[in-house]
Amino acid sequence: MDASAPPPPPLLLLAAAAAAAVLLAVALECLHAFWRPRRRGAAARRLPPGSTGLPLIGETLRLISAYKTPDPEPFIDARVARHGGVFTTHVFGERTVFSADPAFNRLLLAAEGRAVDCSYPSSIATLLGARSLLLTKGAAHKRLHSLTLTRLGRPASPPLLAHIDRLVLATMRRWEPAATVRLMDEAKKITFNLTVKQLVSIEPGPWTESLRREYVKLIDGFFSIPFPFASLLPFTTYGQALKARKKVAGALREVIRKRMDEKLEAGGGDGDDEEKREKKDMVEELLEAEGGSFSEEEMVDFCLSLLVAGYETTSVLMTLAVKFLTETPAALAQLKEEHDNIRDIKGNKQPLEWGDYKSMPFTQCVINETLRVANLISGVFRRANTDIHFKDYTIPKGCKIFASFRAVHLNNDHYENARTFDPWRWQGKNKLQNAVGASLFTPFGGGPRLCPGYELARVVVSVFLHHLVTRFSWEEAEEDRLVFFPTTRTLKGYPINLRRRPDSSF
């Protein structure tokens, strides 16, 4: 064989590959050396670690399947253990930074309207309306929030407290001495009728019940898929919700127009006297506010969104407080003792007053613990208006962020045996009562969007529990369990067998 002949092609390929490998190694080493001094700066600009899951759908299916079980915590726990308290995921169609860090959550709540703004799925935005309290921003949100506080932020008002007392008793009078009721349904009737009364001064009856049935369909559409032309597809959940929204808005619009006409016929009244006189409901507050500058559509959207808030969350809180008490007999016994003492002092037929409410310390422990364990508002969505720097991470402008209250409330680092219902943890002067505890406990949100009706919700639940435990005993009619998607609730509405106490009367 000729020694000067070229090597066979396979050897040429091997030689070329070896040379390329050497060159690549040299190039990588040069790049490594080039970037090594800058690594600290690059790390400071990176997103929180995480996984975006499958193409397009991300980790949405994993999240939903976890939250449809009684124990969704593994979804969060696994990612916090792997990535830390702030991590990146991909849910509901876009990349989302998920926070289980109380310090970052506080930052987000306080930065509302500056570094971040609220951001919700399009289905919720369409069904509530652009002018609703949840979706308005800046000065528009501030004035609506202030009006809501004026009307619903004063539960000590004797007329309001008396109405709550009457409404709860009227509902319970309809229960047979020995009956099976779905407690969630009964609680929703109470909260819906109370909210309607505060908004438009209409007593329970056919009109309110018809409106409530449409509200159920509307709320079901919040986390449904907003198909294009859904209004032409009434067989879909979202299509039914759009149709229900139209009916609810129409009913509220009719009431508002009638009140506007009545105001015109009355000539508007004396300005100074009108300012001093207590308004009878929210519609009257809106008609008088800012010289009557609210448009009809603004009032419709505003009232519609307040009905959703009043109807859903407080009724679930009432139901779950009873469920957790039933499963914790020692807590139920202590609660009964507290309320029996109040009733012994007042007598059976005397209505509750503000002083009675303030003498229910253990009841407030029960409510706090129900809020912490149940997490009726599991968290809030925000969108970054600017780059946000937190620890070693940078969350870019435009990124969706979810601040999880649930992840903080159920973290054993913040609460001992965090996933156990323990109302006694709120007694006495412990760390939960100081500033640190307050910063960890955010069941009603915080910052400029702190729920304006949070104290009213506590009063309604307290009055309900008082009349329930002093007039009835009960047991679970069938096993029921909690699920957390699309909202926190029990699967069966929590059916219970009631027995009227022989020493009670209405």
Description:
- The protein is an alpha+beta fold.
- It folds into two domains: 121 residues, Uridine Diphospho-n-acetylenolpyruvylglucosamine Reductase, domain 2; 336 residues, Orthogonal Bundle (Cytochrome p450), CATH 1.10.630.
- The chain is 53% helix and 10% strand.
- It contains 20 helices and twelve strands.
- The protein has a five-stranded mixed beta sheet with strand order 1-2-8-5-3.
- The N terminus is likely disordered.
- Pathway: Steroid biosynthesis; Plant hormone biosynthesis; brassinosteroid biosynthesis; Hormone biosynthesis.
In short:
Its cofactor is heme. InterPro entries: Cyt_P450, Cyt_P450_CS, Cyt_P450_E_grp-I, Cyt_P450_sf. This protein has 506 residues and is an alpha+beta fold.
Record the SSE blueprint.
Blueprint: H1 9-35, H2 39-44, H3 60-67, H4 73-83, E1 86-91, E2 94-99, H5 102-110, E3 116-118, H6 122-128, H7 138-152, H8 158-173, E4 178-182, H9 183-200, H10 206-220, H11 237-265, H12 271-276, H13 282-288, H14 296-326, H15 329-346, H16 354-357, H17 361-374, E5 379-384, E6 388-390, E7 393-395, E8 400-404, H18 405-409, H19 435-440, H20 454-471, E9 472-476, E10 482-483, E11 489-490, E12 495-500
Parallel strand pairs: 2-8
Antiparallel strand pairs: 1-2, 3-5, 4-12, 5-8, 6-7, 9-12, 10-11
Helix pairs in contact: 6-11, 8-9, 8-20, 9-14, 10-11, 11-14, 14-17, 14-20, 15-17, 15-20
- Assembly category: single chain
Number of strands: 12
Which fold name corresponds to the CATH topology of the largest domain? Answer: Cytochrome p450
Gyration radius (Cα, Å) is: 28 Å
Which residues sit in consecutive blocks of at least 5 with pLDDT less than 50? 1-44
User: Percent helix among the residues?
Assistant: 40-55%
Q: Structural class, judged by helices and strands?
A: alpha+beta
CATH class of the largest domain: Mainly Alpha
